[in-house]
Write a structure and sequence with these properties.
Length: 290
């Protein structure tokens, strides 16, 4: 049975994946890394740890589409007003969620009470003794049996636990709406539309098919960083720079790129498509000036 295609949404002509399972699938199964671009709901005022959506490079998205692993969907679907049926389903989901949270809350409170039962018994004894002593001090009659009564038979079920109010229930924040049943796939995307984009995509696809993982190489002055495996486990070996085949480069730029690659312990690879429509790769290695 073929796997269901991953859904990619275009937002301002940029591809995003909003579903957490899809984000895991493209990385674990298809070696597509992307970059998390959303804030965390519990820590929104920082940019060290990010969350969904997963933003893809145009080359990553096009590869998934052409390989049949993904489909483009209309992101404007999520902006439509919900139908009465969807509102009803949402309210039922909220009520069921609250019911489950309330049951879990009571169970957790009972565990806490069980662990502190001895302390609760001692506290009750101390309060009863203080109350009876106050009665004695006022000259009131005190039941000596009540003073000697122990509470060893006190059990968790004897202690009243206040149920959680609905205003304290956790609310699930969706990154992808679960209410859309029919996906609109009537979406057009004009990538690649220039010769430079076509070269970049061909290079990306070729290196990916050779078993590499690729990410954006902008921070090292290239188009892609090329890894032998998942970037979380390996350092990149190559900096891929995509060029038109007859594009000229000054000697200073070639030397600068080679020295940069040597400094960061990576090999710079110039990538282009020749006149015979074949991909060519030229590596640069800085050996110093003798």
């Amino acid at each position: 049975m073929a796997a269901e295609p991953v859904k990619i949404s275009l937002v301002s002509n940029k591809p995003f994946i909003w579903n957490a399972e899809d984000a895991c699938i493209v990385r674990e199964k298809y070696r597509i890394v992307g970059a998390l671009a959303g804030c965390l709901s519990r820590a929104p005022r920082q940019n060290i740890q990010l969350g969904l959506p997963l933003q893809l490079l145009p080359e990553e998205a096009m590869l998934l589409l052409q390989e049949g692993y993904a489909q483009l969907v209309n992101s404007d679907q999520n902006a439509k007003l919900p139908s009465p049926e969807q509102v009803d389903r949402f309210q039922k989901m909220r009520e069921e969620s609250f019911k489950q949270q309330a049951e879990i809350g009571i169970a957790e409170r009972k565990l806490i009470v069980q662990r502190r039962l001895d302390q609760i018994k001692e506290g009750r004894k101390a309060k009863r003794k203080q109350r009876l002593e106050k009665k004695k001090a006022k000259g009131q009659e005190v039941d000596e049996e009540e003073l000697r009564r122990d509470e060893d038979k006190l059990d968790v079920e004897d202690i009243q636990i206040t149920p959680m109010g609905q205003e304290h229930a956790l609310v699930q924040i969706f990154t992808e709406t679960p209410w859309v049943e029919e996906v609109d796939t009537d979406v057009r995307w004009d990538f690649p539309s220039t010769e430079e984009e076509r070269v970049r995509y061909r290079v990306f696809r070729d290196l990916w098919r050779k078993g590499h993982s690729l990410t954006c190489g902008g921070k090292f002055g290239g188009d892609f960083l090329v890894y032998p495996g998942d970037p979380s486990r390996f350092h990149s070996f190559y900096i891929a720079v995509c060029l038109l085949h007859h594009q000229t480069m000054s000697a200073e730029k070639v030397v600068a790129m080679a020295r940069l690659g040597s400094t960061v312990k990576k090999t710079v690879v110039l990538c282009s498509v020749d006149d015979d429509d074949e991909l060519t790769y030229t590596s640069l290695q800085w050996t110093g000036i003798s």
